[in-house]
């Protein structure tokens, strides 16, 4: 089991590298010079060039990619300083210290005297001290937003990430309860009105856009249930749960439909097996037969589809977050695509793919729990 | 065998209940869709908070980085400029004590500052702060160096900045603590308009130095409100600043939630969770006909919509200044049903245009008749132009970008023009690709708009028609008439406001005679505002984002119905 797990984890690394490479390439192919988009259409060409240089966009594509990964050394610049001479990190830190304690002019002058090539003004007056974002993914640094001045990508994504994660988990719980529940019922009561209606509902669920369902819920459910229509209240746990109820249902219902259909067919398959008949003949309670003997053996396809749904939930979260005005990762990425914030796009998609791959890995590993044959490497 | 079947029965029953619930919900939805009275609660927040919705997260709140309406709507509540506008869009002193004294040669402006104006950190504003704030605009970090460009030495300062040097501007001089002298390279009448833009707001140097680039996320200004909280993509919270120089704002707190989806915003407004909201497409007539008709506010915007011709396009029968081409363009103008477009297609949110300068702006000529639909005139002009019933004209592509009502309007125009025998094909692009094509002069017939940066005819005439602005700067018709250039250039040197306006009006008449556009409409903004919001009077320079930028927000009040004002 351990070696299987290790194998799988190692297998994930090239996938994620490939994703970063792909996103990085796509980013470079989006029309529009990043500096021009950032500084506006009527910006001075020199200004655009200087901006691109500082952000590293004037470097060749492959150099940019290597720097993003962190293979090229981290470099630190002082804003508006001579672009051709990177300042080493010690100076950056010292200057920051001078500013934080509000050093006197004399102190700045003494400091500038020690560092020829820079004026006192550079150290004292320039509004920004700029830390190059090319610290690299390998060092755990996703860089600095191109658009949100002074925000690191990890800050931009971080807050949003946890909102989306909560939303996705909430929805998957809704999806499992509704989907597995309806699937089992349909299988057990197969070819009855319960079976037919729940499968018709499942088809409706599959075809219903989450966007539309969300709007309907805001219009007709939020009021009577006394739930907030939109927004994310993180002041209290209770508020948070309340603001996630509708989005989780909207998103969960959609996935539950797929889960229900798959659960039904997997269960029907198992329920017709001999050992189920044997179990029934032994006089076991139907509950025990269905839940312990049948469901457990039907669970591998179900777990797979639940795991896959998780990926679709992340995608669906983009729309759900828009409708319910949740400050999540999907919206952050969409917003940064519109604003061509390349660092946030790359970082956001990197995080998304890490989640996706991790969930798939967990799904694969969980097979071992349900099926001993996988656990013992004979699967 | 008597087996308990309870678990499944229970499940079956609950599923049945679920089905019933869904059916009920479905019928509820259906009944909701068929109409019924618009419900909208008029319940102010118990704490008197003003709750607004934003369409997007503001990109930046540092004045030197602002170039979008959402950010400038928020920044206007946090910052102040030397001069501002009154309700009629006349320039008035803001942080200046009075309008500046201008030297006889029109080049030097002397500002006396208000005394006792405080930054949110409690420090008093001095002339040094303005010098610093304006010089920041010349640095490489700034997105709007053009705002200070007319100042003497600014071009040099901008170049210095790019080389990593000092951005001190020669023409900015601190005379004493409360006196700032600004000298221009040459007289430039619209300079005060530039100083009234959010970009020219005063900021405290010490805070900028301390916060560096994060100043944009945690700005400090002199405005009626302080930024207390900003959760990206979620919400902003502004609190009234005790030390505001015109007295503490009447509304203690403004919250702005970022709600990208239009339907969600309207639902929140109806539920009484927002004090104002933009009106979504097609909703205006329904609100007007409801019990909440008084919530609807429609006010003119200093912006316009036109369909332009590329006058330099080779091979285009619509290009050039010859009699034939002008008559052809004029004939098309007479064919357009502007009333239909303005009233039917956009629910009255447009006003038919009678020229270039939109209503609500100084220099707008209300007496000038507009083109109305007159097919007889149109056909007669076509005959004069040598294309009777459109004969001899190949079909022309009408380019437009795929936003809002553009497609519907383009179809209406297409239909109108077809009626005089000219075939128009529609060509739709996304904005980025579209603007690139227009800047390059690719389309010969295209849709375009212009939103004023400041309320002055020069902002329209200079950018849209001066030959020095051909292409990306705004003159996408590639209009080029030395007489018009001369009149506009002359207007910069004229210090007398009326004579200047007369020069610009003369230029507008010359342009109109050349018929470079299909003159279509000027636009209006539509909003829903709760009846208990008082002293909220948007001007043509306010759009609906963040509740407008020119409104004196310290005077806006929330007065629940039934209470004395």
Strand content of chain A: under 5%
Largest sheet of chain A: none
Give the overall shape of chain B.
Answer: globular
| Number of distinct helices of chain B | 16
What best-fitting shape of chain A do the alpha-carbon axes yield? elongated
Radius of gyration of chain A, in angstroms, nearest whole number: 27 Å
What value does the average pLDDT of chain B take? 88
Roughly how many Å apart are the termini of chain A? 12 Å
CATH class of the largest domain in chain B: Alpha Beta
Give the radius of gyration of chain B: 27 Å
Low-confidence stretches of chain A: 73-86, 127-134
The arrangement of helices and strands of chain A along the chain is HHHHHHHHHHHHHHHHH
Helix percent of chain A reads: over 70%
Low-confidence runs of at least 5 consecutive residues of chain B: 1-5, 30-36
SS content category of chain A? mainly alpha
CATH homologous superfamily identity of the largest domain in chain B: Dipeptide-binding Protein, Domain 3
Number of domains of chain B: 3
- The SS-based structural class of chain B is alpha+beta
Please tell me the CATH architecture of the largest domain in chain B by its name: Roll
What attributes characterize this protein structure?
heterodimer, A: 379 residues, mainly alpha, 17 helices, 0% strand, elongated, B: 565 residues, alpha+beta, D-Maltodextrin-Binding Protein, domain 2, Dipeptide-binding Protein, domain 1, Dipeptide-binding Protein, domain 3, 3 domains, 5-stranded antiparallel beta sheet, 4-stranded mixed beta sheet, 16 helices, 19 strands, 18% strand, globular, disordered N terminus
């Amino acid at each position: 089991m351990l070696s299987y797990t290790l194998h799988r984890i190692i297998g994930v690394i090239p996938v994620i590298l490939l994703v970063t490479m792909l996103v990085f390439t796509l980013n470079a192919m989006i029309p529009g010079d990043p500096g021009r988009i950032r500084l506006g259409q009527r910006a001075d060409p020199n200004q655009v060039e200087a901006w691109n240089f500082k952000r590293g966009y004037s470097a060749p594509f492959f150099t940019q990619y290597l720097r993003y990964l962190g293979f090229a050394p981290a470099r630190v610049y002082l804003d508006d300083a001579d672009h051709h001479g990177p300042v080493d990190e010690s100076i950056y830190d010292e200057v920051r210290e001078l500013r934080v304690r509000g050093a006197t002019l004399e102190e700045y002058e003494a400091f500038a005297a020690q560092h020829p090539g820079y004026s006192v003004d550079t150290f004292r007056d320039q509004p920004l001290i700029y830390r190059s974002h090319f610290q690299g993914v390998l060092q755990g640094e996703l860089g600095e937003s191109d658009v949100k001045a002074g925000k690191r990508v990890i800050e931009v994504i971080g807050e949003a990430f946890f909102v989306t994660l909560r939303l996705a988990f909430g929805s998957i719980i809704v999806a499992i309860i509704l989907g597995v529940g309806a699937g089992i019922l349909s299988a057990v009561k197969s070819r009855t009105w319960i079976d037919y209606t729940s499968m018709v509902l499942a088809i409706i669920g599959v075809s219903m856009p989450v966007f539309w369902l969300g709007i309907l819920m805001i219009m007709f459910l939020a009021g009577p249930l006394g739930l907030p229509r939109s927004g994310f209240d993180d002041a209290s746990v209770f508020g948070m749960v309340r603001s996630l109820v509708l989005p989780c249902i909207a998103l969960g219902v959609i996935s539950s439909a797929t889960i229900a259909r798959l659960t039904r067919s997997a269960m029907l398959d198992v329920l017709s097996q001999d050992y189920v008949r044997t179990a029934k003949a032994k006089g076991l309670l139907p509950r025990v037969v269905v839940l312990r003997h049948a469901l457990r053996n039907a669970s591998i396809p179900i777990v797979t589809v639940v795991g896959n749904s998780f990926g679709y939930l992340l995608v669906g979260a983009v729309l759900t977050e828009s409708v319910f005005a949740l400050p999540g990762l999907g919206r952050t990425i969409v917003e940064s695509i519109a604003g061509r914030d390349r660092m946030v796009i790359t970082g956001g998609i990197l995080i998304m793919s890490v989640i996706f791959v991790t969930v798939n890995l967990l799904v694969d590993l969980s097979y071992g729990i349900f099926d001993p044959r996988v656990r013992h490497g004979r699967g | 065998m008597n087996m308990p079947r309870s678990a499944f029965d229970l499940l079956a029953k609950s599923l049945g209940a679920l089905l019933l619930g869904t059916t009920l919900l479905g019928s509820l939805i259906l009944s909701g869709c068929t109409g019924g009275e618009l419900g909208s609660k008029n319940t102010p927040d118990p704490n008197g908070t003003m709750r607004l919705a934003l369409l997007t997260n503001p990109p930046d709140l540092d004045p030197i980085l602002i170039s979008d309406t959402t950010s400038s709507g928020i920044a206007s509540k946090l910052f102040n400029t030397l001069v501002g506008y009154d309700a009629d869009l006349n320039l008035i002193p803001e942080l200046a004590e009075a309008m500046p004294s201008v030297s006889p040669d029109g080049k030097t402006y002397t500002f006396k500052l208000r005394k006792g104006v405080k930054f949110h950190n409690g420090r008093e504003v001095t002339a040094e702060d303005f010098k610093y704030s304006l010089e920041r605009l010349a640095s490489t970090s700034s997105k709007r160096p053009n705002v200070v460009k007319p100042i003497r030495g600014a071009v040099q300062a901008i170049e210095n900045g790019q080389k990593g040097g000092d951005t001190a501007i020669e023409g900015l001089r601190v005379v004493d603590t409360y006196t700032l002298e600004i000298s221009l390279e040459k007289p430039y009448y619209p300079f005060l308009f530039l100083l009234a833009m959010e970009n020219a707001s005063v900021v405290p140097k010490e805070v900028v130095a301390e916060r560096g680039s994060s100043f944009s996320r945690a700005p400090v200004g002199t405005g009626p409100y302080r930024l207390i909280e900003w959760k990206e993509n979620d919400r902003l919270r502004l609190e009234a600043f005790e030390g505001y120089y015109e007295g503490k704002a009447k509304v203690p707190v403004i919250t702005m939630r970022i709600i990208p989806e239009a339907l969600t915003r309207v639902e929140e407004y109806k539920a009484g969770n927002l004090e104002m909201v933009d009106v979504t497409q097609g909703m205006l007539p329904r609100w007007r006909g409801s019990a909440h008709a008084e919530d609807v506010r429609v006010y003119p915007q200093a912006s316009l919509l036109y369909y332009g011709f590329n006058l330099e396009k080779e091979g285009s029968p619509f290009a050039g200044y010859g009699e034939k081409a002008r008559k052809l363009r004029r004939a098309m103008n007479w064919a357009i049903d502007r009333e239909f477009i303005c009233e039917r297609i956009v629910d009255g949110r447009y006003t038919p245009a009678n020229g270039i300068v939109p209503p609500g702006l100084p220099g707008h000529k209300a007496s000038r008749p507009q083109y109305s639909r007159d097919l007889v005139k149109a056909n007669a002009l076509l005959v004069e132009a040598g294309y009777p019933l459109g004969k001899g004209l190949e079909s022309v592509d009408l380019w437009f970008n795929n936003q809002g009502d553009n497609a519907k309007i383009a179809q209406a125009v297409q239909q109108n023009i077809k009626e005089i025998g000219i075939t128009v094909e529609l060509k739709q692009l996304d904005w980025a690709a579209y603007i690139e094509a227009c800047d390059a002069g690719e389309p010969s017939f295209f849709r375009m708009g212009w939103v004023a940066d400041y309320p002055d005819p020069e902002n329209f005439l200079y950018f849209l028609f001066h030959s020095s602005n051909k292409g990306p700067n705004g003159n996408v018709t590639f209009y080029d008439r030395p007489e018009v250039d001369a009149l506009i250039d002359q207007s910069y040197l004229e210090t007398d406001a009326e004579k200047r306006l007369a020069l610009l009006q003369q230029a507008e008449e010359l342009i109109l005679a050349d018929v470079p556009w299909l003159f279509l409409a000027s636009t209006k903004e539509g909003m829903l505002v709760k009846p208990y919001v008082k002293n909220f009077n948007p001007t043509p320079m306010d759009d609906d984002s963040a509740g407008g930028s020119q409104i004196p927000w310290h005077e806006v009040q929330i007065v629940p119905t039934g209470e004395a004002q």
